[in-house]
Structure formats: C-alpha cells, structure tokens
C-alpha cells in the first residue's frame, strides 16, 4: 500500500516511523510546508531494503515484517499528484480541513489527527463530502486504542461495575505549548479536554446532555491575551444521570498525567495509573515513584501504533472505521458547550450548540 503523509513535525515524524516499519506499507511519501523538514525525515527513515510484497490484511502484530520505501516531496500539493492509496494528515491544525477535503475528492481513505476542522461547520462539511464520496475518514483519538481505556470500556459494558455514578478524567501537561500555537489551537477545551470528552463517551457508551465549565489563568499571559485559559474543569451530566468530572491544565511540572477513573455501584477501575504516574503519596512523599512520562507521544506510544494499524486495515477494506467523523463531531459539540459555559458562566445544554 502506498501511503502519503502530510506533516513532518512532531506527531508527523512519529507516524512516519510507524508507517515506514509497517508490513502493510510498500511506499511512504512525505511532504511538509517546509520541504527541508520532509526531506530530512525521509532521509532518516529510508531503509536499506524495499518491500514490493502485496498488501496484507493481517494485523501488524502478526503480519511478516517488511520495510517501506520512503521519500520526501518538495510540496504538499505534489502528494495529491502522486495518487497514493491512502493519506495520513498530521499537518498544522488549520490545514486539516483543506487537506482532508482534497484527499476525499480523490476518493482516498484518510486518517487525520484531531480536529478535522477548526469549527463545527467545517466538520459538518467534511462529513457530507466523505459520505457523498463513500470514502472512510478516521479521526485521531488515540486514547480509544489505549489498552487501559479499552479495558475500562469492557468493564463498563460487561456490567462488572454495576450502574455508574461518577467518571473522572484528567489531562495534565507538564509545560505549556509555544505561545504562537495557542491562538490557532482552538483553546484548552477544544485542543486538550476534547480527548477527555471523547473518552467519556467511548468508555461509558453514553451521551453528555449538560455541562458546567470554568477556567483559570495562573501562568503565562499569552493564554489570557488570546482569550484562552491555561487550566479548566467541567462537570458533565450524562443521559443516564452519571456525572463526569474533568480537569485539564498546561502546567503540571510533576509530569504528564492522563487518567480515567470509572466508579460504579459494584466496583471501580482506573486507566492510566501506574508506577510512572506523577503523584506523590502522602505521608511517604515521592518514595517508589518512577520517571514520569515525558508527554503524550511516550505515554500513548502503543495506542498510536494500534491506531495506525486500524487505519491501514480500514484503507485496505478489511475492517470498519473505528472512529468516523461523526464521533469527532460529537466531541467537538461537547468542547463547544464547555467553552460557552466557561465564557458565560452558566450551565449549557449540549443541544444549544448543535447544528
């Protein structure tokens, strides 16, 4: 399978390495807004041998290993002229919608990092275009592929936990992003907490009907200057009465901390709690703690691999799309509702923001 990758930055480089070693990929073509960055990434990944084996429909974990041919192109436009079998979009957020639209117009399956578009209208347009072209578009919500989150979902659906009363989720970054990223990020709720919002839906199988959210700025001024917050929290009311408690921050110097706790009438479980969770037990302090995860790329390394493996199966027509645009739209609605609640200081019914 010939795969085109748009974006050679941090997440793009990570996806490129996974795709280059996939037995399903015979050629990986990389382009970036900065052609030198695409060329440098291709040079780092170019293998000594090239596989011309036919596409396998076996999972990557069981298929025979092979190495893909890797090359960089001078521009993103040339990716579309190369007519690949599928596209992986890991470019800057504000370029997602246009790139996904062009790939869909070619009839190519697409994997795109969230968000598909910077707003609801753009997301709806992609959904319409993909449905009209009958082309699968998979959205990058990697927590859905994490072993802990999937086990939590299984615990819920099996009835092991009984009926749920509380779900708690946190997403704490060790340090803020660059100042120039924040104005184009969509804000804390759309950029960070959207993962927690999607995870609540994924694990519980329920919909959120009402939110109450708040935000704070205790760190760098650039968050406040562009109307964003560096710390946020939300109370969710699910359609069966379960309550969700979410928290996110850009400042957690102890280390990267992402967890989901699910409490039921019979039992409770947690995903993301291990020896590297940056929490100091009291009164013993930090004794026994391991080195915290450096960030999301390390914490969810296996999930990113599983996510791309799933996409390659979708692109080959071997499996159904595990995260279609409609799922991204629901998470976007919830992020919109949270941000509206934060700005207006009131409870918001999710129906208020639906189109």
From TrEMBL:
<feature type="domain" description="Gfo/Idh/MocA-like oxidoreductase N-terminal">
    <location>
        <begin position="1"/>
        <end position="141"/>
    </location>
</feature>
<dbReference type="GO" id="GO:0016491">
    <property type="term" value="F:oxidoreductase activity"/>
</dbReference>
<dbReference type="InterPro" id="IPR055170">
    <property type="entry name" value="GFO_IDH_MocA-like_dom"/>
</dbReference>
<dbReference type="GO" id="GO:0000166">
    <property type="term" value="F:nucleotide binding"/>
</dbReference>
<dbReference type="Pfam" id="PF01408">
    <property type="entry name" value="GFO_IDH_MocA"/>
</dbReference>
<protein>
    <submittedName>
        <fullName>Dehydrogenase</fullName>
    </submittedName>
</protein>
<feature type="domain" description="GFO/IDH/MocA-like oxidoreductase">
    <location>
        <begin position="149"/>
        <end position="269"/>
    </location>
</feature>
<dbReference type="InterPro" id="IPR036291">
    <property type="entry name" value="NAD(P)-bd_dom_sf"/>
</dbReference>
<keyword id="KW-0560">Oxidoreductase</keyword>
<dbReference type="Pfam" id="PF22725">
    <property type="entry name" value="GFO_IDH_MocA_C3"/>
</dbReference>
<dbReference type="InterPro" id="IPR000683">
    <property type="entry name" value="Gfo/Idh/MocA-like_OxRdtase_N"/>
</dbReference>
<comment type="similarity">
    <text>Belongs to the Gfo/Idh/MocA family.</text>
</comment>
